[in-house]
Amino acid sequence: MKINRRDTILLAAAASALSLSGVATAQAAEGDMVNIDALMAPAGGIEDKFEGNPDAPVTMIEYASPTCPHCASFHNFVYPELKTQYIDTGKVRFAVRPFARNALDAAIFLLAEAAGPEHYNNVLATYFKTQNEWGMSEKPRDALFVIAQQLGFTEETFAAALTNQELFTAIEAQRVQVMDEFGLTGTPTFYVNGKTLSGGKTLEQLAAEIDPLVPANFVAPATTPAPAADAMAPAGGAMAPAADAMAPAGGAMAPAQ
Fold first, then answer.
1. Domain spans of the chain?
2. Hey, what long-range contacts does 211-218 have (CB within 8 A, 24 or more apart)?
3. Rounded to 5 degrees, what are φ and ψ at 93?
4. Which pTM value belongs to this model?
5. Rounded distance, CA 203 to CA 218, Å?
6. Confidence of residue 253 (pLDDT cuts 50, 70, 90)
7. What is the DSSP string of 163-205?
8. Distance (Å, whole) CA 212 – CA 31
């Protein structure tokens, strides 16, 4: 598969824009509370793809980067149990938001958005699951397309996704907002009812934050909205988890030619 000139221009522009984005103006500390109204009004107009009970007592938002190994470790190993114990039981509603640290991150979020709300989470999950394949490639854009084909993209729809300048601008607006307003410094960063939790977390660490927020008399709704059948559950073996840490926000990389 050959990336056309328009794809190259957009990805080059993405790399340039992201490399000039700088760092957070104020760095948030672990446990800091952010403004809930601001948190629930993400810049750029991209709608959240929440999973779980819309009336859940706990709202959990993750800012993630597909190239971040710690994000991949969370999604491959921690998220499945979080979903079983907290999302599917109606206690937590959960959404992943884009934090594009580089052009490849931006490209994957463009693809996820292009796939539509019902497939958004599965696209991200698939790229997290296959991170070692495309992330280590000498031609990562070609490697992204190989995965995209498995998700139903054609050369035409892949190219259309990567050249959506309006959506790229919205993704970048979210990045700038969360750095400037919330002091995000790296990924993954979670907000649990507005409380900042930075870096990779175990299920036990997340449970310690979530459990006190769930009323003792909480009863799960009779019918908790079910996610799409393929949501966050790609086929294939998981990659080994990375060491518990957080990928820094800065240091954008240009995609390989």
1. 32-213
2. 213/57, 213/58, 214/57, 214/58, 214/91, 215/57, 218/57, 218/90, 218/91
3. -110, 140
4. 0.81
5. 20
6. very low
7. T-HHHHHHHHHHHHHHHHHH---EESEEEETTEEEES---HHH
8. 14
Residue 113 vs residues 10, 77, 235, 246: alpha-carbon distances, Å: 16, 24, 20, 25
3-state secondary structure of 240: coil
The per-residue pLDDT for range 83-108, each reduced to its tens digit, is: 999 999 999 999 999 999 999 999 99
Q: Which pLDDT value is given to residue 8?
A: 45
Q: Dihedral angle at the C-alpha atoms of 107, 109, 113, 115, nearest 10 degrees? A: 70
Task: Inform me whether the pLDDT recorded for 35 exceeds 60.
Answer: yes
CATH class of 32-213: alpha beta
The answer to whether 41 and 173 are in contact (CB under 8 A) is: no
Task: Please report how many Cα atoms fall inside a 13 Å half-sphere around the Cα of residue 218, on the Cβ side.
Answer: 18
Helix (H, G, I), strand (E, B) or coil at 2: coil
- Report yes or no: 128 and 94 within 8 Å, Cβ to Cβ: no
- Which residue did the predictor score with more confidence, 237 or 112? 112
Torsion sign, CA atoms 20, 27, 203, 81: negative
Mean pLDDT of 119-148: 95
Look at residue 20 and tell me whether its pLDDT is greater than 60.
no
Q: How far is CA 43 from CA 46, 99, 140, 161, 172, in A?
A: 7, 12, 28, 20, 9
Helix (H, G, I), strand (E, B) or coil at 58: strand
What's the first-to-final CA gap in the chain, in angstroms? 13
> What's the full length of the chain, in residues?
257
191 forms beta bridges with 61, 196
Res. 251 pLDDT band, cuts 50 70 90: very low
**Pairing assessment for the beta strands 58-64 and 92-98 based on DSSP bridges:** parallel
